[in-house]
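Slide 14.
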Amino acid sequence: MFDAKKLLDQFLGSQIPGLSGSVKDRAGQMSGYARNNPMKTSALAAAILGTKTGRKLAGNVATLGGVAAIAGLGYLAYKNYQSGSKPQGVPQDTAALEPPTDSPFHPQSAALTNDFALTLLRAMIAAAKADGHIDAFERQNIMQKVHEVDLGAEAEAFLARELADPIDLDALVAAGRTEEQRVEIYTASRLAIDPDTRAERGYLDLLAGRLKLPDALVDHIEATVSSAKVSL
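Slide 15: predicted structure.
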């Protein structure tokens, strides 16, 4: 099985070998790698999600990348919701997005398995397909671009299946076994799109309802994710 967490880095951040150091150091390394490897760092997200959003992750969120970005945003929204505060955006301090080591949202949590990372990928792709615009012709174009990124046969086959198969909302909902996981599934879905059509908004509303997320919690996730994106 391919590494789903690394594949998520292609969607939300950069898959950068040897990334290390402080948050500030990682941000600098990411910027340099992105300049030198634009295909590796952007082609996959552009191919599958590019037609769905005119925005990208802000620097302090993109620095985290992949699972850490989803988990961090979900953690911040969930924490603010539990505290009873009003929905709010992401602060500039990236440390606010770093869950405690004992939190189910922590990227190294036992709950964040490779299988659950696959669920988050499925959630993002399902959201991108929600308005029905990805037809057979569009899938062919997407897979041509995906092939250029050289993800490996297993990852390519996974993406081809997810793009071609109908959205399996039942499977997505069933994969959220805890409230924290359900928050992450919705967060990943909301990150994939900026819902500017009735079909997209309707899909997210249906997903939130099926995940049994309280309206107030959804409002927190919406506010957090919206503020984590900047215009291209």
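Speaker note: The first strand starts at residue 55 and ends at 57.
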